[in-house]
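Subject: Protein entry, chain in single-letter code together with its fold tokens

Area: Proteins and the way their chains fold up in space.

Attached in line: The record itself begins immediately under this heading.
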Amino acid sequence: MYKAFGFSDNIFNVRPLRPIQEDAKKFVGRRTDLNSFMVDIASEDKAVAVVTGHRGIGKTSFVNIMEYAASLEQPIFDGLSIHESRILPCFHKIQIEPGETVKNLLFKAISSLLFSVKEFCFETQKLFPADLEDLLSWVSEVVPTTGRALGLTAGPVGGSRGTNRDYRSFADISSTTLCEEIKKIIGKIREHLEMKGAFLNLNNLEIIEEEEFIGLMNQLRDYLFEIDGLWVILIGYPGMYSTLAMKAARVSEIISGQETFLAPLTEDEVLRILEIRRKTYRMDPDHPPPPLPLEENFIRAIYRNSDGEIRSVFKACDDIARAVFKENPTI
């Protein structure tokens, strides 16, 4: 349908921006938030930072692009010099589920870090560290569906792991051992990729009950949050830091700053995003980009009824464009 409008992709797509150069060019606004985030992650060896905002506001896109900026050798972003640099972006955030255990989260962290290394190597045309092939194979064998979901493929099996591990034996692995595996991955990231460490994004924190959330954070305080070379980003609901400060003081005391709260983008910023997409997605780069399928005033009206949720704005625009196109494809 969007090819009929002259675009190579859905100009109203709601996919989050990825931590890559191509998507960083599509990022708009949030200069104050950029400062807040970069100050909070400014640490020599590790950090725990909090990014909050209402659903559909663009938290994942913001975190991904900030992490891309922090991965650069000499980062300049939106005209600002970023001092914290050379940290591996997180290409697969960890989705927290109700009933999640610390051991499950630590295993997910190993999977996420391996996927991030693999994706970063692909994006930068580097070789995946051979020292991590064995661990990659083990992850894919312990929970094969997790490996496939993360885009992981089994490499050569070696060392003490391999076919002796299966899903049932996962329960026998201690949390301390899993943390040691994470430390090994960080070490290889430093050695082979010449990075200071890696980001790890924990998402969906608003979908679990407060008591469970506090319990998980208190346990992670003694495991994941203590690992040098790991920058953990907690993505959740507004006021999450206050909840931690009141009910998990041991966690809040190691959080950098308080929280980076993302307010809605303005009408003009939403239109700027679409203007960038018009130019990026046009099928014929030798000609001016085609007009948007919906008129600007109509998009502004949708925005004003959306509570500023950019995801709901784009979804509504896409729904309307599809409905009209189905009625009259030649319009």
Summary: The chain has 13 helices and eight strands. The beta strands are 47-52, 76-77, 80-81, 87-88, 94-95, 197-203, 230-236, 260-261.
